[in-house]
Amino acid sequence: MADTEVAKSASSARTPRRRVWLFRVLLLLIGWAAVEGCSLAILLLISEGGVAGAHRAQQAMPENGRQMPSYSESFHPYFGWTHNPDIHTGDIDCCGLPLRANRFGFFDSTDGIHRRSPDRLIVGICGGSVAWHMSCAAETLVKKRLAEIPQYRGREVILVRLAQPGYKQPQGLFALSYFLFMGAEFDLILNLDGYNEIALPAAENFASMTALDYPQGWNVRSLDIVDPRDADFSLRVFELRGARQRAAESARTSLFRFLPSYQLWWFTRNENLRIAQLELQEELQKRRRTRKGMFAQNGPHPMAKTNEEATQECIRIWKQSSLHLHMLCQAHGIAYFHATQPNQYDVDSKLLSEYEQEHCYSDSVTYREHVIRGYPQLRQAGEELRQAGVRQYDLTRLFEKVDETLYIDPYCHFNTRGSELLAEAFVTRVKEALSRNE
Question: How many helices (H) does the chain have, and how many strands (E)?
Answer without folding.
Answer: 14, 10
